[in-house]
Amino acid sequence: MKIVAVNEMRRLEAEAMRRAADGRADGITGADMMELAGSGAALRLLHWIEKWPARQRMRIIVLAGKGNNGGDAWVAARFLQRECKIPVTLFSVCKRSELKGDAAYHAELAQYNVEYEEAVEELPPFAVSAGSVIIDGLLGTGIKGAPMGAYKRIIEQVNASNLPVMALDVPSGLDADTGDGAGAIHADLTVTMGFPKQGIFLKDGPAVCGRVEVIGIDLPLDLANDAQAVAEAFDLEDARRLISRRRSDGYKGTYGHLLVLGGCGGYGGAPILSALGGVRGGAGLVTLGVPGGCLANPPLASLIFRRIGAADDGCFKASMLKDLYTLLYNKTAVAYGPGTGGEAEPQILEELLATDLPMVIDADGLRLLAKNPQMLPRRQGETVLTPHLGEMQALMIGFGLDETAPLMTQAVELAKRTGCVVVLKGRFTIVTEPNGRLTLNMSGGPALSTAGSGDVLTGVIGALLAQGMAAANAARLGVFLHGMAGDLWKGAQRAMSADDLAEMISEAWKEISVLS
């Protein structure tokens, strides 16, 4: 999916409306686009809150501004008033008579069905009390600079309330081009219309947008295809295009054999989580190899578990090479690094890099690679590197690159320098290829902020590599699956563990395709 600048989105909408005005079948009116945007957002809200306790969704408060964003809010309020049993109240910062064009049209349609108040300077206490769910349609993509007047006061009330917020298109106060968001509303879910706007991914955007979902507004196909993108996002539809149904005559050998190598001393949890990710990621077989002295035990009976080296070996050593060669037999991909510790000797990683097996390197394996960059030129097989910010800094320094550059630039330069696919983990995880292609992942959120979630991702990507998927596709699909697993978690976000996350991978597969 394309990420666009505000002016490009306006150009696309204007051309679609011009075609409609000319009577062309491939055009769409502004009023119809607004109807799709507002009703689509309302449906997303109902899906979002359907499992919440009743005490946390006692009323829906819709905030409407003066522009088209406010028009979307009027549509959403009308739809919700008709389709759900929860009371809906709309607060408009202007009088209906001040609205123009499509926004005025939809406010006129809604006025007899929706409870509303006009020219609101601030919200009454009940609107920001416990049990309210907020829809933010105050300010759209045209805002430049910090909100003022009634907008500022209402945004401050909402932010102070700690209530759940869904923003329409972008959170009010966020510059949709630059990502400047001082004084912006803090949304938990942003439903953006047509294409995601570039400011969502820049500066304050990731912090104030929450989870981001995209609503189609029926732009003509040729316009959408020719839209000028500033970057590329990877979303649910992209994920669906990468998978096919499982073969009816398949067996375990059909889906590859992943070898996970990790652990050291008392740290056995990380490789176990990676192995679980490999199993849930769909590999036909998964073998977990740990040093002989690592305190780890097989978490599943279906997992092949091997200790290598002497019983008192607390980390991977050169003396284990013979055992390594035995483990590599018949494998189709390797995941190395989770929990290997800072004492691991480089020879094991060096030998793995000398094979042509697809490989994902994570965690301590990345730091070891950063210290020994000369090992990488021997690499023949496809490789995925999965650093978090600290590991990325080590890699940039290790490979002689500028660690102070913007993150997207860092990811692109590291992929070009190493010839590897780079997965720079974080909000909107960045995936880059050696040819310079970059995508931003659209799934995932705060639930992933737990120890071991990255280890699960390593196993999922490894499983996709083991099944024969190209490294770039395995990285993008693995990251999306991993993020969606967190999004589908029904418990409290802060209560999810990486163990829970591994189990949720199955639910993420079903969300992408019931035949996966």
Question: Please, could you describe this protein's structure?
Answer:
This protein has 516 residues and is an alpha/beta fold. The chain has helices at residues 6-21, 30-49, 68-83, 101-110, 149-161, 205-209, 221-226, 236-242, 269-280, 321-328, 347-354, 364-371, 389-398, 407-418, 453-466, 471-487, 498-512; strands at 2-3, 59-64, 88-92, 115-117, 132-137, 165-168, 189-193, 211-215, 231-234, 257-261, 285-291, 304-308, 333-336, 359-361, 383-385, 421-424, 430-432, 438-441. 38% of the residues lie in helices and 15% in strands. The chain has an 11-stranded mixed β-sheet with strand order 1-9-18-17-16-15-14-13-10-11-12, sandwiched between helices. Strands 4-3-2-5-6-7-8 form a 7-stranded parallel β-sheet, covered by helices on one side. α9 packs across α15 (453-466). The longest helix has 20 residues, at 30-49. The protein is elongated, with a radius of gyration of 25 Å. The model has no long low-confidence stretch (mean pLDDT 96).
Compose a concise summary of this entry.
The protein is of the alpha/beta class and 516 residues long. It has helices at residues 6-21, 30-49, 68-83, 101-110, 149-161, 205-209, 221-226, 236-242, 269-280, 321-328, 347-354, 364-371, 389-398, 407-418, 453-466, 471-487, 498-512, and strands at residues 2-3, 59-64, 88-92, 115-117, 132-137, 165-168, 189-193, 211-215, 231-234, 257-261, 285-291, 304-308, 333-336, 359-361, 383-385, 421-424, 430-432, 438-441.
